[in-house]
């Protein structure tokens, strides 16, 4: 066997990024690994960014947590940034309860009117609290399935 001689015009030093004769390509392999890591990192960043409104609402125990979650999901699936901005705004600000002070003012005015006219003062009816989910009235004395007391 004859020893192969290098062509006189061929460079004596070949850079490492040139594909080898055996088909291995170090630069291509490195770029594929880098590309996979980059796509995974961008995906994690994108999903983390879309979870910010839900995290804000969850941390502050926001009463509109489900609306914030729905808006964030709509923004995620439709790529409509308006939904995401609305979710941030809803999560960031609590809507003030304006009805309770107005009802209190109305009750106070009714009591003052009754006092001025000499009528008996109206008693404000306190609303009954709604039963918690999953209880369905079991154990409550006024529930239809509770045993009735005999006198």
From TrEMBL:
This is Uncharacterized protein. The keyword Transmembrane applies. The chain crosses the membrane at residues 26-49, 70-93. It comes from the Bacteria. Keywords: Membrane, Transmembrane, Transmembrane helix. Residues 120-151 are annotated as: Disordered. Residues 142-151 have a biased composition (Basic and acidic residues).
